[in-house]
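[Solved] Which block belongs to which protein?

Original post:
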Amino acid sequence: MDKSIVNEVVSALEAVKSYGQPGFWILLSILIVLVLVIAAVMYQRIVIKRFQTASKTTQENFETKAADLRKRALEVKKQDEGLKRELEVKERKQQQVLKRSQRALKGSVSHTMLRQISKG
């Protein structure tokens, strides 16, 4: 099929050549321009395809990094919540120890005062 197209183009060129030299050169220059335009369009499509592939890869990398950042943020948030709970537990224990110490001190003071009153 391709050979028949080439044969037709060659026969068309020979026909134009028989009409005269200027027609041949005009047709030849038109064909050259047409081939150059086709080559430029094909090159442009290849470049666009490569750019789209690169853009897609970049987008996938960006999405992967964003997912990793979200995962890390969630882990940090969980660690934060765990640390807050631990701190609350420690504060409660310290408050309980302080209250016990205060009660013991009050009891000791009351006992000492009662002794002094009973002696006096």
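(Second protein starts here: sequence line, then its structure tokens.)
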Amino acid sequence: MKFISAALIATILISIVLSCKTSGYITDRESIQRQKKMRSYRTGVNFADAGLLFVSTIGAAFTGVNVYAEPTSRSFKMFRLVSASNDTLFVNMVTDWLWKDSAYCDIREIIMPPLQKAKVIVPLGATYNIYFRNDFNAPDDEKVEVNTVKVRKATLIPQKELQQQFQPK
């Protein structure tokens, strides 16, 4: 019994620590603040849902009446950016999804080191245009469009590196 309770507590603590982690590669102050607000909102909703489930379970155990607590619909989720480039990538994620203060949920100025992963919190159901380049002074960015309902991660490979991979030697 002690092993099960210790494993349960360890699992809960690990999931809390992993769910709160966001990207340290974001350099834009507004984007960092928006990520913090979205993370705290998401964490609050998750704790409230867990509390409701716990209370309904305890209530069912004492009263014998099984009341199912309806979980709040999810509005944010973790999204992973994966850099498959051997160079540093400069990334901007742009959407038309509005946050509470009438500002867009854009995530700007993400500077990803080579072959690294970044986790960001995004609204569920938003369509993001991800613009990236591996040269800071490049005239044009490359673009990937993703819908956060369908996709959990985006692998970013610059066209130059993609073409070099498939050239015959």
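Accepted answer:
You had them paired correctly. Confirming on the second one: The beta strands are 76-83, 89-94, 107-112, 117-123, 127-133, 142-147, 153-156.
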